[in-house]
Design brief:
alpha+beta; two-stranded parallel sheet; 116 residues; 2 strands
Length: 116
């Protein structure tokens, strides 16, 4: 999974191979969205998400807010939510005690189920 994650990140930037070691650029769009959310100006509505959506909320996340996760779950017709109390914003990189296994199991289960 780690290799696939790294490969996908590098593939997302066509200039990745122009640097040594290869690296990807990450646009600041998420920062702009967060700034707007802090002033209660949402960029989009989750009601437009018609596919199944898994919202994972880490209890020790310094970036996302619990009310934002709730809004997505309340609006998206096929959303489900998982809270991992001891996890951080980087739950996919956390240790087992901080919820990494819970996160990975949930993602594998969600991706492995038939779309309904």
């Amino acid at each position: 999974m780690t290799a696939a994650y790294g490969d996908a990140a590098l593939a997302s930037d066509e200039t990745a191979s122009t640097r040594q070691p290869p690296s990807f650029r990450s646009p600041s769009g998420a920062m702009a969205d967060s700034f707007e959310l802090a002033f209660d100006r949402r960029q989009w509505s989750a009601a437009a998400l018609t596919m199944p959506v898994l919202i994972i909320r880490s209890g020790r996340d310094f970036w996302s807010r619990p009310e934002d996760a709730k809004t997505i779950v309340d609006e998206a017709p096929k959303a489900e939510r998982l809270d991992i109390p001891e996890a951080t914003h980087f739950v996919h990189l956390d240790r087992e005690a901080a919820g990494r296994g819970v996160f990975l199991d949930a993602v594998k289960r969600f991706l492995g189920r038939p779309e309904g």
